[in-house]
Amino acid sequence: xxxxxxxxxxxxxxxxxxFINESILYxxxxxxxxxxxxxxxxxxxxxxxxxVVNEKALPVKVVLLGPPGTGKTMIAxxxxxxxxxxxxxxxxxxxxxxxxxxxxxxxxxxxxIYREVASRLGLTIPRRGxxxxxxxxxxxxxxxxxxxxxxxxxxxxDFLTRGPKSEIFYDLARLVEAYPERRPRISxxxxxxxxxxxxxxxxxxxxxxFHYVIKFKPYSKAEIIDILWARIEEGAxxxxxxxxxxxxxxxxxxxxxxxxxxxxxxxxxxLFIAGKKAESRGRSSIVxxxxxxxFSMVTPFPKSLLEYLELHEVLLLLALVRLLKNNEFVNWVxxxxxxDMYADICDEYDVxxxxxxxxxxxxxxxxxxGILKATPTSKGKGRTTRISLPGVPLNVLEEELLRxxxxxxxxxxxx
Length: 415
Known about the structure:
The chain is an alpha/beta fold. It has 17 helices and 8 strands. It has helices spanning 6-12, 38-53, 72-89, 110-120, 132-146, 167-173, 175-178, 195-198, 203-209, 221-236, 244-254, 264-280, 288-298, 311-326, 335-348, 356-368, 394-414; strands at 61-65, 97-103, 149-155, 186-192, 213-215, 332-334, 373-379, 382-388. The strands form 2 sheets. It has a 5-stranded parallel β-sheet, sandwiched between helices. The chain has a 3-stranded antiparallel β-sheet with strand order 6-8-7. β7 (373-379) and β8 (382-388) form a beta hairpin. The chain is elongated. The relative contact order is 0.10.
């Protein structure tokens, strides 16, 4: 057996202090738990129930609609696992059911989609020599020969709603009419991002195919945090490698109610990259700067925004960066602490500091620009505000601020 030596052993031979099974954070992984999507799974089951348990039931068409990263494909895959388990145990089903998911972004034409479905059913279809209508007919025949029904899931179906590709919706809508004597047993699940995609199709087709829609809303901060902890507890990471501040920070960045896009895939990617950053630095836990760097890789910070900052806004932001760098385990500071550091930096650069009211206005302006976050919170009998920089790597930001500061000071001297 080959033994790892030197740097190879360092990279491949050591046990991770962060990850247990990092694949649990991958976007294609189907988790055991699905926080805040249980109702969606039940709703899909209720819509499909009659088709599954009643051999004479008509096919069902349903749309799973929502932005990226809201759990649509996960729930469709989870439902497929349930159907396959029922088929294996032969309980609660009227006849065997094939459950096939096809990604329409990868297979971009009706012919390639039908060819893939036919292949999953055991048919070999050459790339040339058959029309899409002939392949669809072979699928119907094969299901009849095998005595099976089919639930076909068209993921990323938005990509088929424009141009000649949209013919697939007409083909599938006319299945029962095209084969009245056979009554094709093919139910359909369309996974779509944009409700406007449906409007690209003919009104008659819309009413035939899209009469039942299950909506998936973007995740909130609290929901993102629940999803992260569910994956950690399933065995993605050592629980000691992540604390509440890290998951709260990611939730603040991604949660839809906090101005993020509510995309769980992005949240999991940030956690994964942050873990890799911590691991590469030999640490056994993730710190806020790892999250900032991870977020900047997923969503690069627009440096051009900083060009619009005034001198005192640059000084105030530099004060915030230094405070956060002085304590790598802290993700926020209070306004009072920030004002004290701001005054010290003003003194360092021989600039007269502004008063509390102006400082507060600077904070609000930079919050509106999306540069920092200001969160009111209760503290004892009073209230204060937590100021944070969740999405910008501190070293990168400090370097840019020092460049802008030199530019402002030179301008001040020459005026």
